């Protein structure tokens, strides 16, 4: 028997949300729009509370865009003690294909969510569309935000470094040749020590040695470059771009280092991060990313669900005599990237894992396929570690180089 409750469906928008309130029998009690601001949130909860007090029933809310445009309304709903469901957009699209509507409007979408509420206890497909949101430890929520921000900054840093390197190669290839890595701190500080790139060729030895990170070794390299330094005509307008990019890279490196300190502190407080950190080869950044994206193990019904979420479990693709696999669309790409890096490093640390990887390679699997195959086994281990609250143990393994 279905427990009676007040059901709220929210079609999330960037500025306004369409809300529908219904009883357990599917009867529409009220429909309205709320703006995405504090005044709108107060109106949202006041309307729900009026129905809750009149009917004396618990409240369940289903909404699109959990952790997206729904913020901070989704957090406020959880603080109120309401049961929160996330509408899986991929499964909702499939549901709409099977049970199409006459049109598509915000009002109809909100009603469709309420229909799913009514059908979820009788129709398995409807049940899968609505996914109950389980509270996540605050340290993992913070790790999620910090690691996502860090990944964005790292990508920006790579993009700016590549652009700076390309421009430097065009303006003065000999300048670029004095370092094997254009993102070296000493090289970036050398580039930005003067506002004009051409002035670097006239720096005296004393000024060069005062640059942090430039010792006698790099001082001699820079001095040798200065003797034959030449710039193309593009330096008049590209030189400022190179200096600007180098300055931006230094700023990004500073921000990334600051995030790393915060991530390190939070990882100590996170149960998932501490457990996964005991697996050989699982680095601090990858572990923090995994803990933040997983949030809580209670979100998943089984280790197979976790493996699917981490991208370690391809789906069967079969038709007649054809047997193959396909990549699932429900994968968390950030968690998958962190898992692939961690597993690849794990292979270098544990002989048994390396032997398994080489076995898969000998069977004809590509590198990524072999890594995912090992990752599938590691997900089972991770599941047991978190569920049973125990650390990773291996009889013997080679220390990472």
What secondary-structure arrangement, pairings included, does this model have?
Elements: E1 6-11, E2 16-22, E3 28-35, H1 38-55, E4 59-63, H2 73-79, E5 83-87, H3 89-98, H4 106-119, H5 124-129, E6 130-132, H6 138-171, H7 173-177, H8 185-191, H9 205-209, H10 216-227, H11 235-269, H12 271-276, H13 284-294, H14 303-309, E7 315-319, E8 322-326, H15 333-349, H16 351-362, H17 367-388
Parallel strand pairs: 1-4, 4-5
Antiparallel strand pairs: 1-2, 2-3, 5-6, 7-8
At CATH level 3, the topology of the largest domain is: Helix Hairpins
Biggest sheet strand line-up: 3-2-1-4-5-6
Number of DSSP helical runs: 17
**Quaternary structure annotation:** single chain
Instruction: Report the radius of gyration as a whole number of Å.
Output: 28 Å
Residue runs with pLDDT of under 50 for 5 or more positions: none
Instruction: Give the % helix.
Output: 55-70%
CATH class of the largest domain: Mainly Alpha
Going by CATH, the architecture of the largest domain would be: Orthogonal Bundle
Give the beta-strand count.
8
